Amino acid sequence: MSIPVKITIADDHTLFLDGICSMLQQENNLQVINTAADGKELLTLLDIEQPDIVILDINISGLEVTKQIKQRYPCTQVIILSSYNEPHLASQARNNGASGYLLKNCRKDDLIHAIHLVVAGGFSFPGNTSYTDTTFLKMYHLTKREMEIVELISRQYTNQQIADLLYLSIYTIETHRKNIMQKLQLKTPAALIRFILTNPCHSVIFGFYCLVLLS
Question: What's the predicted TM-score (pTM) here?
């Protein structure tokens, strides 16, 4: 059984904190290990136990706390939750070490997607939802899950690693790969090479090409 992603949430609004905690606890692959009402309490909790991800409200000095978290615990990733759709705040969050900046009115699926993306080493920011720019693939009608898998493949994750990360069976990942190839209308490695060379964003799927050649 795969190890769940450990999460600590910090927010000064109790109802919101309880709501997001309850929502994430419904996911089998996510585990909320602690909650905090302010930055000081959060840092105290992190001294005791470090999660994989901290989900942090910007209004409790979130930008400054992010910097402190990354200085003390560089392996812990931070996703900022904010009510402010302000590019300069998202930019500052990233400069301070955050791996994501989401609005508080985002959908549940968007938050969960961001968590998995960040755990995989990616970033989730407004206008840049993926570590790698896969937006050009939308013209091929790839689903959100297929886009996520292409993102991970482009980072040279194996099928087994992707399955473990997304808590899916390797058979499901292989099926997604077949569907991706079908939607891209590619049947052979040579065809995929041509697709890579003629696509302006060919570096995005370089890892995908490598895996197909080896399969």
Answer: 0.62
Nearest to 3 by CA among 123, 148, 119, 157: 119
Q: Could you tell me which of 151, 92, 143 has the C-alpha nearest to residue 121?
A: 151
Quick one: CA dihedral 172, 151, 79, 8, positive or negative?
positive
Kindly state whether residue 190 falls inside one of the protein's structural domains.
yes
Q: Look at residue 34 and tell me if it is in a domain.
A: yes
**Closest among 97, 16, 109, 104 to 63, alpha carbons compared:** 97
pLDDT digits (tens, 9 = 90+) for 5-55: 999 999 999 999 999 999 999 988 899 999 999 999 999 999 999 999 999
- The answer to the question of residue 59 being in a domain is yes
Residues listed for the chain = 215
- Which segments of the chain are extended strands (E)? 5-10, 30-36, 53-57, 77-82, 100-103
The model's pLDDT over 84-124, given as tens digits with 9 standing for 90+, comes to 988 889 889 988 999 999 999 888 888 998 898 888 777 88
> How many Å apart are CA 79 and CA 119, to the nearest integer?
11
Total domain count, the chain: 2
83-99 as b/e: b if 16+ CB within 10 A: eeeeeebbebbbebbbb
Structure tokens at 182: 């079908």
CA distances for 177 relative to 54, 91, 116, 149, 198, angstroms: 31, 34, 18, 8, 21
